[in-house]
Automatic annotation (TrEMBL):
Keywords: Cytoplasm, RNA-binding. The keyword RNA-binding applies. This is SsrA-binding protein. The keyword Zinc does not apply. GO terms for molecular function: RNA binding. It comes from the Bacteria. NCBIfam families: PRK05422.1, smpB. One of its GO terms (cellular component) is cytosol. It is found in: Cytoplasm. InterPro entries: SmpB, SsrA-bd_prot, SsrA-bd_prot_CS. It holds the Pfam family SmpB.
Length: 155
């Protein structure tokens, strides 16, 4: 038939690099995601962006919003929507704790990393975070530059 073969990766680790620059992480948790079949196939092909994603509570459920999972190329008519809301799977105790802390002023819940665990399930690492001020961002950049200079001088 001559159809093209899609490459599926075993080790998938997609990071939200912008998040560590914009936010200070207070606490991290690992949550499962409720996905459709075509979504997990796209994740395994690393066609995901966490750039603008954030989490919010709708009722008693924690939802991740604006996480872009590209439509699966071989999906056909029953393919998924790219930026649909997806439910996160956490225990009731963890959800209550996050909800209580997220209602405090200045805190938000953001996804930091998406990965496939050793059992083949997609997991999302989320962080309870506080936004950084401009001077905090500058200090972080200064520290990175100093570390880079020290590592150059050693060699």
């Amino acid at each position: 038939m001559g159809g093209k073969k899609l490459e599926i990766k075993q080790k998938v680790k997609i990071k939200n690099r912008k998040a560590s620059h914009e936010y200070e992480f207070v606490e991290k948790l690992v949550a499962g995601i409720s996905l459709k079949g075509s979504e997990i196939k796209s994740i395994r092909m690393q066609k995901v962006s966490l750039q603008d994603a954030f989490c919010l509570f709708i009722g008693d459920e924690l939802i991740v919003r604006s996480m872009h999972i590209a439509p699966y190329e071989m999906g056909g008519y029953n393919n998924h929507e790219a930026k649909a809301d997806r439910k996160l799977l956490l225990t009731r105790r963890e959800l209550d704790k996050l909800d209580k802390k997220a209602k405090e002023t200045g805190f938000t819940i953001i996804p930091t990393q998406l990965f496939i665990n050793d059992r083949g399930l997609a997991k999302l690492e989320i962080a309870l975070a506080r936004g950084k001020k401009l001077y905090d961002k500058r200090n972080d950049l200064k520290e990175k530059d100093q570390k880079r200079e020290l590592s150059r001088m050693k060699y």
